[in-house]
Design a protein that fits this description.
The protein is 41% helix and 21% strand. The chain contains 19 helices and 19 strands. The longest helix is centred in the N-terminal third of the chain and has 17 residues. It is elongated, with a radius of gyration of 27 Å.
């Protein structure tokens, strides 16, 4: 097998350059300033012809096959490799059948069909890359077609390695280079070239925490199947790295690190702020690790490897980015279930913090378990548990709890007395929610609260109020009108339709706040 030691891969990369540049020119590098004063060079593979690096390896392999007289190829891909195969196949006049997971973002499916035109047949099979790859292998055997592997192919690795040559051509003044790892093709090719071209540079592979198949392989001494993988970074969701890519990475990489999905989301937001680029999650892996390890002294580079983002994932990324940057945190509190308790809690906690999320439903006659999302500096957020302890209030950081992320708000409607349900609107600014709580808390007891900041000029909360009798209920409605509180009343049927009600809900179990 070709290894770093005998320099054969380096030679392959040098030969691959001509085939790569028949399709598109070199991608640029951009210097960005990071929080804290560090700078970072970014290799912009998102600006390539398919908005990821994958076109390079596909161009090399398909060009070689065309020279051999091949007329049909087969590939499996989570999206980006498929686009590269589609582009190269159409250019070569070659038929390509591409197998993609059923969960592949729609934007990637559309781009494959657009780039390949009549030359490409897209088949959605399997729930992950590995299942699609198995279908592709079976089809290739039946048809006698040639497979263009997404990463474990020497020609594909060489094509991706041209990125390393472009980096070395522009600068040799680098201390650390960060490379994303899925199947390992990019890291194998680029690291091999940079190891030979820039003496002393530290080469770092980056994986997402829930799909660290290269780290597992290095620990085991061979590629291993790590089982089901987290698919948030869908472009790198590979259960087992390639045999060839493993050998190159084992020799060329200095270390492999992992980053969390929240850190990836924070990196995507930072890429937008600094580059006006919106990378896909897998494309931001290297950028995320470089930002985390930036120390203001080393000369670092990260490869921004792709930007084929499904637009529908943006809200989730925006929400999680604040957690990754540790500027947003969620706490559950154990307080008494009585009139004014929620308002009192807001008055006594989180001074200087902006409330960006409020989740509460009445589930007990004596105790309440509201979850509040605060946004502030890390120091201000760190003080919240100490403030709660001083006040005799139990609290717990629940930022990573699934129930919070999915906004599962327990509620027992049978405990509510003469309730009124409404969507209440108020200015979405710091302090506005506290003002609203004070205004309505004087005349009603809050039994349900569902609010999340959207960043718009106005915020709205779905709220439930309860009263001792119908007279106080009528008086409350008059207060809303008199004070000009924007609201829309909801009937019980609409409220039940919009709220997932569980009479047996136990928020103490979901959030870890004991009763």
């Amino acid at each position: 097998m070709s290894t770093v030691g005998d320099n054969s891969m380096f030679s392959r990369v040098m030969l691959a350059r001509a085939r790569v540049y028949r399709v598109a020119p070199a991608t640029p590098m951009t210097m960005v300033s990071l929080p804290g004063g560090s700078t970072l060079l970014v290799k912009r593979e998102d600006l390539g012809p398919v908005h990821s690096f994958k076109w390079r390896g596909a161009a090399v392999r398909i060009s070689e096959l065309a020279d051999e007289g091949c007329t049909e190829v087969v590939a499996a891909s989570a999206g980006n490799h498929a686009q590269g195969v589609a582009l190269a196949s159409a250019a070569a006049g070659m038929r390509a059948t591409i197998f993609m997971p059923r969960s592949t973002p729609r934007i990637k499916q559309q781009q494959v069909r657009r780039l390949g035109g009549t030359h490409v047949d897209v088949r959605l099979e399997g729930d992950c890359y590995d299942e699609s790859a198995a279908s592709a292998a079976q089809y290739a055997t039946e048809r006698g077609a040639r497979i263009v592997h997404a990463y474990d192919d020497l020609s594909v690795i060489a094509g991706q390695g041209v990125i390393g040559d472009e980096i070395a051509q522009e600068t040799s003044e680098l201390d650390r280079v960060y490379l994303c790892v899925g199947g390992g093709g990019l890291a194998a090719g680029v690291a091999t070239v940079l190891r030979a071209s820039i003496p002393g540079v530290e080469l770092i592979g980056v994986e997402a925490e829930g799909q660290a198949s290269m780290k597992a392989a290095l620990d085991a001494g061979e590629p291993v199947d790590i089982g089901p993988v987290d698919s948030f970074c869908d472009g790198t969701a590979v259960r087992k790295v390639g045999e060839r890519t493993f050998e190159f990475c084992r020799e060329a990489l200095d270390r492999v690190v992992t980053v969390s999905n929240d850190e990836v989301c924070a990196a995507i937001e930072l890429a937008w702020e600094t580059l006006r680029a919106i990378p896909e999650p897998s494309g931001a892996l290297a950028f995320a690790a470089a930002v985390r390890e930036a120390d203001g002294t080393s000369r670092d580079l990260a490869v921004l490897s792709g930007a084929n983002l499904d637009f529908m994932t943006l809200p989730r990324i925006a929400q999680r980015s604040h957690i990754g940057r540790r500027e947003r945190r969620y706490y559950a509190f154990g307080i008494r279930e009585e009139a004014g308790s929620l308002v009192s809690l807001l008055d006594r906690l989180g001074d200087g913090c902006n409330i960006v999320d409020f989740q509460y439903g009445k589930t007990d006659e004596r105790l309440a378990d509201p979850v509040i999302g605060f946004e502030a500096s890390p120091g201000e957020l760190d003080r919240i548990p100490d403030e709660a302890m001083t006040l005799g209030i139990e609290s717990r950081d629940v930022s990573s709890q699934q129930a919070v992320g999915f906004r599962v708000i327990p509620l027992r409607p049978g405990l509510m007395r003469s309730p009124v349900f409404a969507v209440v609107t108020f200015p979405d600014r710091g302090g506005a929610l506290r003002e609203l709580m004070h205004r309505v808390g004087k005349v009603a007891s809050i039994c349900y609260f569902n609010y999340v900041s959207t960043g718009e000029t106005e915020g709205s909360a779905m709220m439930g109020f309860e009263f001792e009798d119908a007279a106080r209920r009528a008086a409350f409605l008059d207060v809303l009108v008199t004070h000009g509180v924007k609201h829309r009343l909801m009937g019980p049927d609409e409220f039940r339709f919009r709220v997932a009600i569980d009479e047996d809900a136990r928020p103490d179990e979901a959030y870890g706040v004991s009763r």
